[in-house]
Design goal:
Chains A, B: Pfam families: Acid_phosphat_B (PF03767). Chains A, B: InterPro entries: Acid_phosphat_B-like, Acid_phosphatase_pln, APS1/VSP, HAD-like_sf, HAD_sf. Chains A, B: Keywords: Glycoprotein, Signal. The structure is a homodimer of 261-residue chains. Chain A is α/β, with parallel strands linked by helices and 261 residues long. Chain A folds into two domains: 78 residues, no CATH class; 160 residues, HAD superfamily/HAD-like (Rossmann fold, 3-Layer(aba) Sandwich). Helix content of chain A is 48%, strand content 13%. In chain A, the strands form two sheets. Chain A has a five-stranded parallel β-sheet with strand order 5-4-1-6-7, sandwiched between helices. In chain A, strands 2-3 form a two-stranded antiparallel ribbon. In chain A, helix 1 runs antiparallel to helix 3 and helix 4 packs parallel to helix 7.
Chain lengths: 261, 261
């Protein structure tokens, strides 16, 4: 009972903090963005909650950076527990779906997972990029990814192991460049426990410059032509789960830090 | 400056209240649902926020009722301002998109709006249905809709008028039954200021029993075959904006109270 009350108190404090730290950012005139009227939009945390909802529901597209007034809000969201709760909630729902599936068990049962911020996390990197308030830095990201120091997303690692245990062939499909990041990605996935998947598919030269929707649709089409049935497809970007051959069910994991077209 | 501080204070209180009133529901043993462990899921408001996000991102589907422990949370969300803020935020984004469109101006420029909880609101009805915690009641809803007392969703009425002014042909496409609710719906839309649309399309006998995705895809296909270009498609249900001929851009308005397959 006490731990339950403490839990609720902690939660109330987090929500209050979400409001207060938005205020802190907004009340600094040097940080106030010139275009978006946060007062008209409802101010601070409420505005950022609307923004995050619109991102997750695919209403805002091709956005380049997190609105500066939402820096503290996104920092709180990503690091104070709600991001993890949202992830766990969705993975619980994926588990329910998996439990209902009757596999064909002819080696054709497939599942697709994205890599960045699905299997392994770039949160440490994005902390230094003001949680997405700074624009995308291709060279900086490449340097980071080359280190192979992304940590596993715990909920997705559990999902991965459940999928393996149930008998799915798991395909990891990533927009990372095959030539420059292939080795580091392979190693990073391995050192974080993603072992026993069917295939890691990186972006080959043929797909350079193509949008993720086009590239990933092509990959899924090839898998379908090889005879695989794609039962599920999980990613943190809408471009992971839109386009063609998306799979029987798609699941969008939260990511309020960046947008991949 | 004072009004700005008051606004932030009000916002903090709302967020705190969201946490507290979840606690109130959860601490009542008669209301605690037997299956979902709210503690394990992160408890009260945080859990309900995860649930709402999963609904809006189309991760949870075919859900029948709002989780009972989220009754107060959804009540707060719908009536304390955040729902309205979310709506306004999305409509602002729709307006940005509209401003970029160069119309063909050959009477083919079309836009599709859903009716229930897009153009006109059923919030008053759902208040009596515990904001969706009670299961769908077809007869109760029919009685309500027959009264033609739904009020306009202000942000969408503004959008409607902007679309008209810019020269779009507006098609209102609803799953409401044509025979039993046609007259009331026509009257309700009119008494709320939705005047000057191109066509109101209700569910005719041919589509009875079909899912909204199938029915609405068929309608959009017919419009495309008539030569219309569907620039935008707005609804509060994923089934409004999925399927075929969805349009150049789709927009999902929030609705955490019910799910239409």
């Amino acid at each position: 009972m006490i731990s339950s009350t403490m839990q609720r108190l902690k939660e109330a404090i987090v929500l209050l903090f979400l409001a207060i730290c938005s205020k802190a950012v907004n009340s600094n005139p040097y940080r106030r963005p010139p275009i978006i009227d946060t007062e008209a939009a409802g101010g601070g945390a409420a505005y950022c909650l609307s923004w995050r909802l619109a991102v997750e529901a695919n209403n805002i597209r091709a956005w380049r950076t997190v609105p500066t007034q939402c820096l503290r809000y996104i920092e709180c969201y990503m690091t104070w527990g709600q991001y993890e709760r949202d992830l766990n909630f969705i993975v619980d729902n994926i588990n329910d779906y998996i439990d209902e599936i009757i596999l064909k068990s002819d080696d054709s049962d497939a599942w697709i997972l994205d890599v960045d911020d699905t299997c392994i996390s770039n949160l440490l990197y994005y902390k230094r990029k003001r949680f997405g308030c700074d624009p995308f830095d291709p060279m900086g990201f490449k340097t980071w990814a080359s280190k192979a120091e992304c940590s596993a997303v715990p909920a997705v690692l559990k999902l991965f192991n459940k999928l393996r245990a149930k008998g799915f062939k798991i395909f990891l499909v990533t927009g990372r460049d095959e030539i420059t990041l292939g080795q580091a990605t392979l190693y990073n996935l391995h050192n974080q426990g993603f072992i026993g998947y069917e295939r890691l598919i990186l972006r080959s030269e043929a797909y350079r410059g193509k949008s993720a929707i086009i590239y990933k649709s092509e990959i899924r089409k090839q898998l379908a032509e090889e005879g695989y049935k794609i039962w599920g497809n999980v990613g943190d970007q809408w471009s992971d789960i839109q386009g063609e051959y998306v799979g029987e069910r798609t699941f969008k994991l939260p990511n309020p830090m960046y947008f991949v077209p």
